[in-house]
User: What shape does this take?
Amino acid sequence: MTDTTLHIGQTLSFDASPFDAGPAVARHSARGAILVEDGRIAARGEADDLRARNPGARIEDHGAALLLPGFVDAHAHYPQTAIIASWGKRLIDWLNSYTFPEEARFGDPDYATAQARLYLDLIVQNGTTSVCSYCTIHPESVDALFTAAQARGMRIWAGKTCMDRNAPDDLRDTAQSAYDDSAALLARWHGRDRLSYVITPRFSPTSTPDQLAALGSLWAERPDCLMQTHLSEQTDEIAWVRSLYPEARDYLDTYESHGLLGANGLYGHAIHLEPRERARLAEVGAALVHCPTSNTFIGSGLFDMDGLMREGQRIALATDTGGGSSFSMLRTMACAYDIAQLRGRALHPAELLWLATEGSARALNAADRIGTLAPGSEADFIALDLASTPAIAQRAARAGDIWEALFPTIMMGDDRAISGVWIAGARCKGAA
Ligand code: GUN
Ligand code: ZN
Assistant: This one.
């Protein structure tokens, strides 16, 4: 029997990117609804209208809550859950002091499973229904995350993080084993249920040219897969890349010359880019992943959202947990706002919301399935309480429109603002 539920609340949707067309492309309904049928969105519209046309549907009325697509986190490291908010280091020291010792524990499948479950529980509580995550060098860490996501019915992306130099002995593979392990994991998981494998060289400093080339070959064999890595996050890192790859034109060239630049590539951070790098990234249509809480926490720099959007780059938004200091995409939007302000551009709430949903989904080539509430999409959605704390409520009470009502939650909200979460139509947070 068909399971049909009409979810009623405020709704917001975008007819185009607000970066291209301005915030007026957003449509707000104070009494809107989505009709969910067998895990998919069957219709979206005005509550009264959908109710009259679907008399058999079960009704869930969420009152003044705002129904939105689940957040899409385009870059995270689930194995860094336990070391989030580790004090006082910049990127390379932070990796050596905190990250690598923790990642070494993921060779134990029981530990990997426990951390994968904990991580997914945390992000779902924060309204994130899809994530693109790094794992560790260990294939077991990929199995653990995909297994846990599969049990929750989540659409996620993940890959084994490959490193064959400049990492501890127990966290190094080789060019050949990185290729073999990645290919085996890809064959095991890619396209199974809602899971996708991502080819994952950590970053140029921890891969030899041979390893980058091996993963470039795998990507050429499987161009349907996404590829994720890090690019130009800190100035020390860029100087290190220059010394490790003296023949490269710039950081991006270390990837480009090994077959690791393409439209299905996700390049995390992308802060300190050279003009040639910007031009090539735009030309191939690669995706840049902005990780604002990480960029402030590790002291990396200020992402040029305005300039990069103007030159037509594809941009996604992400936590970068645990270099990022939060599991919350609300907190991530707030930090993106702060960083853009420091560069002289006030991001509109419509732009922030779009980045955290459809923008990230587009970067993952999945906006036809997640990141919007369009009919035909998978029913991954959240209910956002726009008055979740006294401080937010008193500000929202003064709001003259939906953007003024939403912005205090973007800036000050956390998991308490997420009053409901549904994955493929099934409720995962909040009371029915
Ligand atoms: N660059 C290479 N690895 C990492 C990582 O784990 N986190 C961040 N923020 N940057 C990286
Ligand atoms: Zn990262």
